[in-house]
């Protein structure tokens, strides 16, 4: 305050307001007030100039920083080694059925389950759930999300610690491809560069599929498909919203959220994914609420092990293949595995069972059940009983009859004697029920599986000839101690596998042509091997027609399939093999160690499994088509030599020369000019030596001429192979096979 009591003049904030030239001067007689330092940046022009310089400096600093960062980033990326996707491409070998369904996966060499999977085989809603939870801008960034990185950096600066990593799905894949334990800025930078490289190389879909294959799910389980089977037992395309959400949540912390160990933590993580999915519009609120009510699994499920033996065999044969597709029908395979397990358990402890189903048209193996359970040690389930040599009992009798039919020795209506008989070396066969039927037709003897008539026919055709025919058709026949074939082979005195037996019966269904089995659906069919047929078409049909009338097991309908049973000596093996035009089914039951099982009979134990297997295949059985040359006649209408089986031809002839075909010779190629002339214009002379007239000539088991002389004339119906047979009045016979052109 002044001496006069008045306040001093105020100080202006900027040096005070401007005054006139004499304001505050000494001439006014007043003391000039003290002035404050100026707070202004100078005149406006100078302010603008300074601001520009500051901005320039800032821009220069930022540019230098960006350039230095870019140079450092370039140098960092230059020092990175080439990206190696080899380890990341390692997958479990998978064996598939004919439709691509999973039969059995195999762990990788290091014990991991990493099943191949395409994004196209995953529910699109699950993929949307995944990106909503892990990387909302996955479709728009180039491997690194700048917004996520900026957010993570701001949170780091603000909190002094890492709150969120800013990783994209692509960066997570980079971490899975190049796993490193340390967590550092350099490691994050490496992941970002690798993520960009991955997207350039693989594209979005490729990066996504790599994540689906490599994401960890706890323990040795890696990848969405393996996790889906491990926790839910099915493919990821068939998951519910709750199941999909659980699998989306697990890779972030696979060990801490494993539902088999920490179900509460797994549920919390799953519910968070459902909340995010609802907020992003992937699910509705109601769907998310319903999904939260579902329980989480509290354990793991075993991986599929369907057709375990066939899968193991395929992998052993082609160890480098990542995916193997077999000809098996997965649905039928699983059904018949269940059937074998149930029936073996009902038959008794320690019993095994095997079932093989063949498509007759192609030779493709539709079902391969090697045992009731691969892991069942009590039944030696690891042994593939379709490959084991076993005694077939009476199961191979049909091939004795087929050989007799095509040789002209017998016809289905030929009468045979079922009476006690003794052969050399004191061999006296008996029927299974120790009874005899007397005089029966060959058809009835085969249907009832009578032993004595079968041995009688085998003596007529020759055991060595039967074994040679079976082997020439591709069957591996084992004889006891490599002994010469004898009459006991008619009743099971040899060894054969279920696989070979099934092939032989399939040959009957195919008109005598035994198929090469086709097991791989992803490879070209094998080149057919040159094998002899198991029977001629007419003889094969005679057998099939007779077996179709065999009495069925209890509670089964008759006249539906052609089938034959067998029981080995000592009740060690029970067989049942049946066929129609479509398929052949072979069943074996017994102990893998070959021990005897009292009461183990093919008709009682194996035949019901056979008929049940046919019903599970589905559809109505289809009979074999009758060949045009089949002779349909009763016994009295047959040529006299075919009415009864006669073995005393040489004795009746009083020591005459044995019957033999003199012309045409066996294996001859005869040019009759069939290609240029009508078939009926060509004739073939038939000549025989020895025997007891009259002679009956047969072509492909059909009578074509009867003459009191030893020659006849035949008019072939066309070119091709023909089996020409001759029989004399005493029942002696001879046959040749020729090719007519």
From TrEMBL:
Keyword terms of this UniProt record: Carboxypeptidase, Glycosyltransferase, Hydrolase, Membrane, Multifunctional enzyme, Protease, Transferase, Transmembrane, Transmembrane helix
Catalytic activity, reaction form: [GlcNAc-(1->4)-Mur2Ac(oyl-L-Ala-gamma-D-Glu-L-Lys-D-Ala-D-Ala)](n)-di-trans,octa-cis-undecaprenyl diphosphate + beta-D-GlcNAc-(1->4)-Mur2Ac(oyl-L-Ala-gamma-D-Glu-L-Lys-D-Ala-D-Ala)-di-trans,octa-cis-undecaprenyl diphosphate = [GlcNAc-(1->4)-Mur2Ac(oyl-L-Ala-gamma-D-Glu-L-Lys-D-Ala-D-Ala)](n+1)-di-trans,octa-cis-undecaprenyl diphosphate + di-trans,octa-cis-undecaprenyl diphosphate + H(+)
Domain Penicillin-binding protein transpeptidase: 354-514
Pfam families in the record: BiPBP_C, Transgly, Transpeptidase
Biased amino acid composition, Gly residues: 13-23
This protein's record includes keyword Hydrolase: yes
Transmembrane feature ranges: 54-74
Ranges for domain Glycosyl transferase family: 110-275
Region (Disordered): 1-50
This protein's pathway: Cell wall biogenesis; peptidoglycan biosynthesis
Enzyme Commission number: 2.4.99.28
Domain Penicillin-binding C-terminal: 652-737
Compositional bias segments (type: Pro residues): 1-11
EC main group: transferase
Taxonomy, superkingdom: Bacteria
Keyword Nucleus found: no
PANTHER family attached to this UniProt entry: BINDING PROTEIN TRANSPEPTIDASE, PUTATIVE-RELATED, PENICILLIN-BINDING PROTEIN 1C
Family (UniProt): In the C-terminal section; belongs to the transpeptidase family.
Entries under NCBIfam families matching the protein: PBP_1c
Protein name: peptidoglycan glycosyltransferase
